[in-house]
Amino acid sequence: MEKLSFRLTAPRCAGGTRPQAIVGVVASGNLEVLLERVSPADMCTIDIATAAHGFGTVWDAVVRDFVARRSAGGLRISINDGGARPDTVALRLAQGVRKIEEPEQ
After folding, report:
1. Which residues lie below 8 Å from residue 57, measured CB to CB, with a gap of 6+?
2. In angstroms, what CA-CA distances link 80 with 20, 23, 32, 77, 83?
3. Alpha helices in 10-55 (DSSP H)
4. I want to staple 84 with a disulfide (CB 3.0 to 4.6 A). Which of 31, 54, 57, 68 is the partner?
5. What's the whole-number mean pLDDT along residues 29-34?
6. Localized where (predicted)?
7. What distance in Å separates the CA atoms of residue 4 and residue 96, rounded to the nearest whole number?
């Protein structure tokens, strides 16, 4: 298992008040993403556990693009990867932010 960590400055804080959200399922070709509101409002911390070794530069590009495009400030994001492609990673991250911004039920 390869572990990667990123601490990025986020231009926008995540909206909503949900304390956490989870999307996806770890299975062949997919991933699980847990988002928690525990980071400073201008920071996004992303921790990744992946079985696919040697893709650090790809992960770096995907998470930097995500933080630049989405409201990710204030979030700690934990990713358990089962070999997902970059477009699936971007989709799950977007779904996670949307879910954490939804009103609590």
Report:
1. none
2. 16, 11, 5, 10, 9
3. none
4. 31
5. 91
6. Cytoplasm
7. 19
d(CA 48, CA 61): 14
CA 29, CA 16: separation in Å to the nearest integer? 30
pLDDT for res 87? 92
Beta strands in the chain (DSSP E): 2-9, 20-24, 31-37, 43-50, 75-81
Both structure tokens of 91: 């989709």
pLDDT category at 70 given cuts 50, 70, 90 is very high
**What's the whole-number mean pLDDT along residues 16-23?**
95
